[in-house]
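Translate structure to sequence.
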């Protein structure tokens, strides 16, 4: 019998991630306990499970289910107690009922470097660093969607409009000959709406980039500001500023 490899939870590891998977045979095991006693990393433990089976009998069989409790040897799904494939359990087993089998599809180093945590659902939540986009604060979902719908939509336009919206009865508008025109004599005004462009240039050290690379980025940022009118800036990181960039016309678009 092979141990179960299903995910008990979305954020839990499965045996498929480990370098060795313990192959245990129920029909050969005598439940002597030698294997679990000698395992140096405690990767296997005795456990109790409920096994369900379905059977039918007679000329007009009706499927019936039965359950019974069985004792098993189970592999632990714990990054601190993973099987190293030493084979100590195989050496002490009198009936050759257990052995570690190498898993070439393992992702041990990936999960070990993450502290033993599995994949988490939710895109950017896998990244421990908080990006600039996560710090933007929006008070209405209509700022992010077009048309303005419920908060279940996770898409936004390249250009978002921010500003105060007046009630319809306070807008300085009137109807003249069936057309809506601006009433300049009302003394009221339409509040300004500012356009923002959620364009983000990832944080990187200028000292880590080649001169053509950072100069190309600087020219791109300057083009967005001076030609397209987009208020975009770039952070220099902590790699230092080249003298050529300090004397250039692009310095005003950099956060040093």
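Result:
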């Amino acid at each position: 019998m092979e141990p179960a490899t299903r995910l008990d939870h979305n954020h839990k590891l499965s045996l498929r991630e480990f370098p060795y998977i313990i192959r245990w045979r129920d029909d050969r095991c005598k439940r002597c306990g030698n294997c679990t006693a000698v395992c140096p990393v405690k990767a296997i433990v005795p456990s109790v499970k409920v096994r369900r089976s379905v059977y039918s009998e007679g000329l007009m069989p009706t499927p019936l289910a039965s359950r019974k409790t069985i004792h098993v040897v189970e592999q632990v799904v714990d990054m601190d107690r993973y099987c190293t494939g030493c084979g100590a359990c195989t050496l002490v087993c009198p009936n050759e009922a257990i052995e570690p089998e190498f898993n070439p599809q393992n992702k041990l180093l990936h999960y070990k470097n993450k502290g033993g945590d599995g994949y988490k659902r939710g895109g950017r939540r896998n990244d421990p660093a908080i990006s600039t986009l996560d710090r933007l604060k929006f008070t209405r979902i209509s700022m992010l969607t077009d048309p303005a719908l419920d908060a279940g939509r996770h898409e936004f336009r390249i250009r978002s409009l921010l500003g105060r919206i007046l009630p319809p009865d306070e807008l300085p508008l009137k109807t003249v000959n069936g057309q809506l025109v601006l009433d300049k004599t009302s003394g009221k005004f339409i509040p300004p709406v500012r356009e923002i462009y959620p364009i983000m240039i990832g944080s990187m050290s200028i000292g880590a980039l080649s001169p053509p690379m950072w100069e190309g980025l600087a020219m791109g940022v300057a083009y967005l500001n001076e030609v397209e009118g987009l208020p975009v800036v770039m952070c220099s990181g902590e790699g230092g500023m080249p003298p050529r960039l300090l004397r250039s016309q692009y310095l005003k678009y950099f956060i040093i």
